[in-house]
Structures
1.
Amino acid sequence: MGALGAIMAYGTEAQQREVARRVLEEGDKPAIGMTEPNAGTDLGALGTTATEREGAYVVNGTKHWITGGGISRTNLIFARIQDKDGNDQGIGGILVDKGTPGFTVGRVEAAMGLRGIPEAELIFEDCEVPAANLVLRDPKDGFKKLMNGYNAQRVGASAVALGIAQGAHDLAIDYMCEREAFGKKLKDFQGLGWMAAQGEMRLDAARLLIYRAACNARRLANNVMLPEMREASIAKAFVGHEAFHSVSESLQMFGAAGYSSDLPLERMLRDVRMFQIGGGTSQAQLNMIARGIFSNR
Ligand SMILES: Cc1cc2nc3c(=O)[nH]c(=O)nc-3n(C[C@H](O)[C@H](O)[C@H](O)COP(=O)(O)OP(=O)(O)OC[C@H]3O[C@@H](n4cnc5c(N)ncnc54)[C@H](O)[C@@H]3O)c2cc1C
C-alpha cells in the first residue's frame, strides 16, 4: 500500500496505468524501498542516489528490510535525486523493475514473524532506468509528499494488526467458554471476564481510530485519497501497542497451550510484534504527533 499510495498520488499517468495493470493482471505487489542500513527512522540520512544521465537515471545504493524484496516486479525506491552535474535535488522516488541490470537481491532477513512474505536487501550498482521511471522530483517538498503517500500504508498496517488481535481475542473467548478450572468455566471467573472486557475495549478503540483515519482521508493529489498524518500516526502507534498487548492477554488465557506452536497464538504474538516497528516505529509516530502538538507554540 505504501508504494501504491505514492505512485497513484504522485506518479505520471503512464506510471499509474502500468503499475495498476501489473497489480490487477499480474498480481504484482509493489515494494517500497526506503530503509537503508544507515537510515531507518532517520530517513533524511539516506545515501542511495539516482543521478541523471542522458535520458536516464543511474541508481546506486543499498536498501534493506524491504517487504516483497526479490518477488515484487515494481520497486519504488527512495533516493537522493541528482542532476547530471551531481547537484542534490532532494529526496524523490524512482521505479526500478526486478531484473534491471545492476539491481540484485541480497540477504533475505530471518524475520521472527510475518513469514508469508520475505524482507530482503536490494542492491543497486550503476543500475540504469529510463528517465520516465522518475515518480517524484521536487527539491522542496518531494520527501514530504512521498511520506504523505505512506500514511495509507500506516492505516492499512494498523488494520492488519487489529485483525491479528481480533483473531486471538475470538479464540480466547471461545476457549473461556470451554475450559474448566476449580469446577467452573474460565468465563465465570470475574478476573478473567474483566480481561476479556478490557480486550474488547482495546479492540473497539483501535478499530475506531483506524476508521477515523480512513474516513477522513483527503484528496491530496491526482484525486487520490490519503489519510492525514496525525490521524494515521495516532492509529498506528495506538493499534501497534494495544494489538500486541491484546494478543499477549489472549495467549495467557490458554495457559501452557498458548505457549505452544500447536496453537496459532504464538505465531500471532510474533506477527503482531512487527507493527510497532515496520512502517515507522511507535517512537517515530509519537515524534510526529508531538511535532504537530507543538508546531504552533
Ligand atoms: C517486517 C518488517 C518489514 C519492513 N518492511 C519495510 C519496507 O517494505 N520498506 C522499507 O523501506 N522498510 C521496511 N522496514 C524497515 C522499517 O521501516 C524500519 O525498521 C524502521 O523504520 C526503523 O528503522 P531501523 O530498523 O533502522 O531502526 P532505527 O531507526 O535504528 O531505530 C532504533 C530504535 O531507536 C528508536 N529511534 C530512532 N530514532 C528515534 C528518535 N528520533 N526518537 C525516538 N526514538 C528513536 C526507534 O524507534 C527504535 O526503537 C521493515 C521492517 C520490518 C521489521
2.
Amino acid sequence: MPHGRVAVSQITFRDSAPEERAAIHELAARAFGRPDEADLAIDLIAGPAETLSIVAERDGKIVGHVLFSRLDGPDKSLALAPLAVDPAFREMYVGTELVRHGIARARQAGWKSVFVLGEPDYYCRFGFRSELADPAIVEWQGPCLLALELEKGALSGWSGPLVYPDPFRKL
Ligand SMILES: CC(C)(COP(=O)(O)OP(=O)(O)OC[C@H]1O[C@@H](n2cnc3c(N)ncnc32)[C@H](O)[C@@H]1OP(=O)(O)O)[C@@H](O)C(=O)NCCC(=O)NCCS
C-alpha cells in the first residue's frame, strides 16, 4: 500500500535485534539493487568484530539500516558501512537520522572515531572530513575516505594502517 511522504518523527531508530538479520539483508539488497552490501552487513554482524547495528522502523517494517564495525587502527575506531534506506523512504532524512543516531550511540559507548568511504557532500553534514582520514594507509585512500572524531583530538597525530574487518575484502 502506498504510504505517501512520512515525517521522520514517525520513524523509530533503535538497535537491531538478532532475529532481524533476514529483514536487514532484504532491505539492504533492495536499497543497493544487488546482494553484495547486504551480504557484507550480515557477515559483519555475525563476525567477530564488534558492531553497532541500527535500524529505522516504520509500522513494524525495517525501512533503513546502518552498520558500524570495529577497525584496527586508531584507538576505539569504527567503520560506517553499509548505510541503506528503502527506496520508498528516500529523501525523508531517514539516512541522516540513522547516521546521527549511530554516531550518538557510538559516542555514548566510548568509541572515539568513525571512518566512512562515501560521498563527501552527504557525510560532511555530520562533521566527517577527508583531511582527518588522509593519514590512514588503506587501499581505498582518496577524497571519499572521510573521518569524524567522536572525542576531540582522537585522530590528531595518528597515522598508520587502517585495517577493515575481513568481510570487506569480499566486496
Ligand atoms: C544514500 C542513501 C542512504 C540516502 O538516504 P536518504 O534517507 O534518502 O537521505 P536523506 O534523506 O537523509 O538525505 C539528506 C540530504 O542528502 C541528500 N542526498 C541524498 N543522497 C545523497 C547522495 N548519495 N549524495 C549526496 N547527497 C545526497 C538529499 O538530497 C538531502 O539533501 P537536502 O538536505 O538538501 O534535502 C540512500 O539513497 C540509499 O540507501 N542509497 C543506496 C545505498 C547507498 O548508496 N548507500 C550509501 C553508501 S554505503
